[in-house]
């Protein structure tokens, strides 16, 4: 299994990279870290440094990188971008998550 991005997420990542004038060497890093009300929190940021064990994906022209440990928790996950009224945000659709907090920023497996 791999990581995927919805069509809306791809559009938003490309838009953010353009607005921030980020070059081709910059990629989207998806990961997890300990913390949050459910035990693990999602991490999402632009980065330009890869680790030796990072997994790389090219999803509709968006470079996505995930460290090996995070990939164990994120395999099969889809990153989506959802608009609600005047605001919008990225959401993680993770089939491995057994439970999630109300805000959707943390989960447990």
Describe what you observe in this structure:
With 109 residues, the protein is an alpha+beta fold. The chain has one domain: Sandwich (Hypothetical Protein Aq_1857, Chain: A), CATH 2.60.300. It has helices spanning 7-19, 68-74, and strands at residues 4-5, 27-34, 40-47, 55-59, 62-66, 78-84, 87-93, 99-100, 106-108. The strands form two sheets. It has a six-stranded mixed sheet. Strands 1-6-7 form a three-stranded mixed sheet. The protein starts with a strand and ends with a strand.
In the CATH scheme, what's the topology name? Hypothetical Protein Aq_1857, Chain: A
Order of helices and strands: EHEEEEHEEEE
Strand order of the largest sheet: 4-5-2-3-9-8
Shape: globular
Instruction: Using the coordinates above, name the CATH class.
Output: Mainly Beta
Strand percentage: 35-45%
Overall domain count: 1
Give a quick precis of the structure.
This protein is an alpha+beta fold and 109 residues long. Helix content is 18%, strand content 43%.
């Amino acid at each position: 299994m791999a990581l995927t991005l919805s069509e809306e997420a791809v559009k938003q990542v490309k838009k953010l990279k353009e607005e921030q004038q980020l070059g081709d060497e910059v990629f989207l890093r998806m990961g997890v870290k300990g913390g949050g009300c459910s035990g693990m929190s999602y991490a999402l940021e632009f980065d330009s440094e890869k680790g030796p064990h990072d997994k790389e994906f090219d999803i509709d022209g968006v470079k996505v990188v995930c460290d090996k440990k995070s990939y164990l928790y994120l395999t099969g996950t889809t990153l989506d971008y959802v608009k609600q009224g005047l605001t919008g945000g990225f959401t993680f659709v993770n089939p491995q998550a057994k439970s999630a907090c109300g805000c959707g920023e943390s989960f447990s497996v």
